[in-house]
Amino acid sequence: MIFTTPASDDDSTATVADPVVTVPAPLAADTALSHAVVGIGRFGCVHARKLLSLQGFHLRALVDCSPSARVASELAALPLLSSLDDMPRDIASATVATCDDAHAEVAMALMRRGCHVLVEKPLCIDRHEGALMIRTARQCGVTLGTGHIERFNPVFDESLLGRLRNAATNHRQSRSARPFMRFRRCSTRIATARDSVLDLMVHDLDLFAWLCAIPGEAPLELLALHVDAHGVRARVRLDALVAEFESGYGSLPAARLQLCDGHREQWLDLRGAASTTAAGGDDALARQYQGFRRAVLGEPSRIASGADGLAAVTRACQILRA
């Protein structure tokens, strides 16, 4: 079963409903981004706390439409707004940390205001919505990023990244049917096994593509799939590389990557590495925001683009539909 990521300007998707957009002013390199966080659940509050002290950002507002929305004491000084319409007009960027099925609508409304947007993963839950989000970003002249935070895991320094990409090239040339990488990601959350694909496995689908420099349009071939009460296991071929993915709930939290380079095998504990915080709070989330800011400035960055986020969602949905 092979499925190809749709082009971001696919004419089969709907056109943008509201043609009135605000084009953002150019941003000076030394200017802090006036920022808002939309969606103040558990993840939204984590983002807001990080942004409070993060250089290059000025957190100006929190937005949540729920009448029961509350924030912790350290965020209480910030205005808590119930609508995007109440946001100050000079907000330059925003984080979307709402429920997954609202990501597309909220992100597009923000982009039409001229905001650069970082959307928590998954970018969307429908690939056609994702294509429309990318088109909206292009029309509005803004940056659309996806929060695939594993790209900023400290374990993936430039040395390891270079070694992995060289190994991926060699593995492609060998045309080996053996898996080049194996991923396992688990959570204590209570949900169905299939829910873990867009919640957990989508992290690793993006990570595999990024580590191996696989283009977003590369088709995924699903070689094997097993679903039970505890999780989902999938073996895929992507850009001539075979990988195995496992995700599920109800067990101890885990995030591991096994590298199968020739006759050598190496396990990386991604969860342990990601929890490491350097002096000054320089953890994966802080690095992701600095990467997002560089992308806004037009500089090279590890941040997952909207197209990258859409590719991960498209591949996850193919696994879900099998």
Fill in the keyword field for this structure.
single chain; 322 residues; alpha/beta; Rossmann fold; Dihydrodipicolinate Reductase, domain 2; 7-stranded mixed β-sheet; 8 helices; 24% strand; globular
Folded structure, characterized:
It is globular, with a radius of gyration of 19 Å. The model is unreliable at 1-17 (pLDDT under 50). It is α/β, with parallel strands linked by helices and 322 residues long. Helix content is 32%, strand content 24%. The chain is built from eight helices and 14 strands. InterPro entries: Gfo/Idh/MocA-like_OxRdtase_N, Gfo/Idh/MocA_Oxidoreductases, NAD(P)-bd_dom_sf. Residues 35-148 form the Gfo/Idh/MocA-like oxidoreductase N-terminal domain.
